[in-house]
User: Which sequence fits this backbone?
C-alpha cells in the first residue's frame, strides 16, 4: 500500500531537518550552473543550446543523487552534484531520449505530454540507484513503475502550488527552499513506489512455518459391548473424597537461542523451531555463540529446625507466637521473565569515510538492517560498484549484534577475515567491497 502524499511530505521535512542549509546551497549551485549555460545561449545561441543539452543530463543525474542521499539520511557533499559527469555518456543519451519522447507526445496534445513527463519522472532516480541501467532501459523501468501511480505523483505536485505562490511573493527567494522540499518529496515518492512495486522480495531469510497436522477424525462406529461394560463397572468413589486434578502437561522449555523472533518480536517456545510460527522468519544459528542466561536461583541455607518446629514436652507452657520480624523470612518468588525486555535497542552505528574524505555515519535499525547497492536496502550505496545489490545484513539477537553475508560477490570481511556469519564487537572493521566501516555499539 502506497504512503499518502501528506506523509511523504512529512518524511521529506524530517529528512531535511538540520540539513536545510545544505539542501538550499546544493540547489543554488545547480541553478547557477544551469543559468550559466543559459546565459551562454543568450550570447551565442547555437553554442549555448548545445552546452545546455550537454550538461543538462549529468547535472540532473547529480541532482537526483544529491537529494536521494538527503532523503535517506546519508551524509552528502556538494561534490555529489557533479557525480553525474562520471557517467557522462549514459546521462546525456538518457536526457536526449527523455526530451525527444516528451516532445513527440506533446505534439498530440498537452495532456499526453504531461502523461509522458509523469511516466518518465523516475528515470534519473533509477539511474542513480542502478548504475547498470542505460538510457532506454531506465525509461522503460520508470514507465513500468509509474503505471497506476501517475495520478498520485500529479497530486503530490499540486500540493506545492501554495508554496510556489509564496515563493513568487518573496521575489523568487522562497524558491530556494521550495525546490529542495519538492525534490526531497519526489525522492520519498520514488522510494515508496519502488518498495511497493519494484523491490525484490528478500531471499533466504523467511521460510514458511510447518503446516499443522490435521485433527484426528472422530470415530463413527459405536463402542463395543466390553468397552461399554468397562465404562459401567467403574468403582464408586469413597464419600468425602476430593477428586485429584489431572496433572498439567509440562510446558516446553524456552529456547534460549531464540527467545524472541527478530521480525515480529513474539516469543518462540519450541526449542527445536527453525522458524517463527507467527510470521515464518527463519531462526539463525551462530556457530560458537551461546546466549547469556541467568544463573539458577539457589535456595536459602537453613540452620536446622526453628524454635516453633521443636517438639514440645508435656506440661510445658506453649511457645509464644513468633513476631513478624523474627526468624528467617521466606524468599520472595522470582519475578516472571519479561521476554520483550530481553531485547535492548541501543544506538549502534557504522562510521566510514567517503571518497572525498568526508566522514560518514549510518545508524543501524533494530532488529535488522540490510546493506547493499540497490535502493530496497535500509542502507543503500548506489555508487559503490564493488558492493553487491543485496550484500549483507546486520541484526540484533538479544543484546548481541551479528553480520551475515547474503551471497555477495566480494564477500564480507570482519577485521580482515572473510566470514559468512559473525558476531560484532566494539570497534570491529567491516569491509564490503572497497568500503570499510567501523562498528560502534553505543554511538
Assistant:
Amino acid at each position: 500500500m502506497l504512503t499518502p502524499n501528506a506523509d511523504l511530505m512529512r518524511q521529506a521535512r524530517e529528512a531535511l531537518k538540520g540539513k536545510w542549509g545544505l539542501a538550499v546551497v546544493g540547489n543554488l549551485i545547480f541553478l547557477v550552473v544551469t543559468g550559466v549555460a543559459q546565459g551562454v545561449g543568450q550570447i551565442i545561441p547555437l553554442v549555448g543550446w548545445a552546452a545546455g543539452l550537454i550538461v543538462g543530463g549529468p547535472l540532473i543525474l547529480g541532482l537526483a543523487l544529491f537529494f536521494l542521499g538527503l532523503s535517506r539520511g546519508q551524509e552528502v557533499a556538494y561534490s555529489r552534484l557533479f557525480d553525474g559527469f562520471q557517467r557522462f555518456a549514459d546521462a546525456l543519451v538518457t536526457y536526449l531520449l527523455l526530451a525527444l519522447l516528451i516532445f513527440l507526445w506533446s505534439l498530440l496534445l498537452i495532456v499526453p505530454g504531461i502523461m509522458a513527463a509523469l511516466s518518465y519522472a523516475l528515470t534519473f532516480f533509477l539511474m542513480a540507484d542502478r548504475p547498470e541501467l542505460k538510457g532506454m532501459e531506465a525509461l522503460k523501468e520508470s514507465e513500468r513503475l509509474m503505471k497506476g501511480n501517475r495520478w498520485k505523483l500529479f497530486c503530490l505536485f499540486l500540493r506545492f502550488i501554495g508554496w510556489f505562490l509564496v515563493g513568487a511573493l518573496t521575489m523568487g527567494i522562497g524558491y530556494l527552499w521550495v525546490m529542495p522540499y519538492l525534490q526531497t518529496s519526489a525522492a520519498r515518492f520514488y522510494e515508496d513506489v519502488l518498495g511497493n512495486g519494484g523491490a525484490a522480495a528478500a531471499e533466504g531469510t523467511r521460510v514458511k512455518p510447518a503446516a499443522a497436522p490435521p485433527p484426528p477424525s472422530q470415530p463413527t462406529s459405536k463402542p463395543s459391548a466390553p468397552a461399554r461394560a468397562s465404562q459401567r463397572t467403574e468403582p464408586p468413589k469413597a464419600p468425602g473424597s476430593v477428586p485429584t486434578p489431572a496433572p498439567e502437561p509440562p510446558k516446553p522449555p524456552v529456547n534460549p537461542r531464540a527467545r524472541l523472533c527478530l521480525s515480529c518480536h513474539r516469543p518462540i517456545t519450541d526449542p527445536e523451531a527453525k522458524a517463527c510460527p507467527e510470521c515464518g522468519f527463519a531462526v539463525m544459528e551462530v556457530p560458537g555463540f551461546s546466549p547469556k542466561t541467568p544463573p539458577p536461583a539457589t535456595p536459602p541455607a537453613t540452620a536446622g529446625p526453628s524454635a516453633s518446629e521443636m517438639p514440645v514436652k508435656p506440661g510445658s507452657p506453649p511457645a509464644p507466637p513468633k513476631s513478624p520480624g523474627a526468624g528467617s523470612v521466606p524468599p520472595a518468588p522470582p519475578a516472571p521473565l519479561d521476554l520483550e525486555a530481553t531485547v535492548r535497542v541501543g544506538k549502534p552505528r557504522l562510521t566510514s569515510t567517503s571518497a572525498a574524505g568526508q566522514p560518514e555515519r549510518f545508524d543501524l535499525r533494530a532488529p535488522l538492517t540490510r546493506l547493499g547497492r540497490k535502493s530496497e536496502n535500509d542502507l543503500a550505496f548506489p555508487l559503490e560498484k564493488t558492493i553487491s545489490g543485496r550484500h549483507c545484513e546486520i541484526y540484533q539477537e538479544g543484546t548481541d549484534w551479528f553480520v551475515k553475508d547474503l551471497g555477495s560477490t566480494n564477500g564480507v570481511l570482519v577485521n580482515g577475515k572473510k566470514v559468512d556469519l559473525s558476531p560484532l564487537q566494539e570497534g570491529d572493521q567491516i569491509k564490503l567491497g572497497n568500503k570499510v566501516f567501523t562498528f560502534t555499539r553505543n554511538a
